[in-house]
């Protein structure tokens, strides 16, 4: 069974499994299925808005898909999440990415 199928099966049994949803989003992103990846990241963040890594990974997927405006919005939300949770490392990474995207536009 491939990873997407396995993670989908886990989520069918437990839709609240944040780790499995994050993993599924990552697998979709790695497979180039950006729309599905972003939807899974958004579903995760609706249920768990302080799953800070999801903002950063969603932004990276969006940038690869030439969707910089959406990526910027995701990063702004992610920076807020990082501040709320005291995650200085994630805040720094997302701030740097946001600055880079802003410089390109």
Would you kindly provide a brief summary of this structure?
This protein is mostly helical and 105 residues long. The protein is built from six helices and no strands.
Helix content: over 70%
Our count of helices gives 6
Report the span from N to C terminus: 42 Å
Count of DSSP strands: 0
* Class from secondary-structure proportions: mainly alpha
The total domain count is 1
Cα Rg: 14 Å
**Largest sheet properties:** none
Order of helices and strands: HHHHHH
CATH topology: Serine Threonine Protein Phosphatase 5, Tetratricopeptide repeat
Q: Choose one word for the global shape.
A: globular
Q: Quick one: CATH superfamily? A: Tetratricopeptide repeat domain
The overall pLDDT, averaged over residues, is: 96
Tell me the name of the CATH class.
Mainly Alpha
Unreliable runs, pLDDT <50, ≥5 residues? none
Notes on the protein architecture:
The chain has one domain: Tetratricopeptide repeat domain (Serine Threonine Protein Phosphatase 5, Tetratricopeptide repeat). Helix 2 runs antiparallel to helix 3 (about 35-45). It contains six helices and no strands. The chain starts with a helix and ends with a helix. The chain has about 100 residues and is mainly alpha-helical. It has helices spanning about 5-15, 20-30, 35-45, 50-65, 70-85, 90-105.
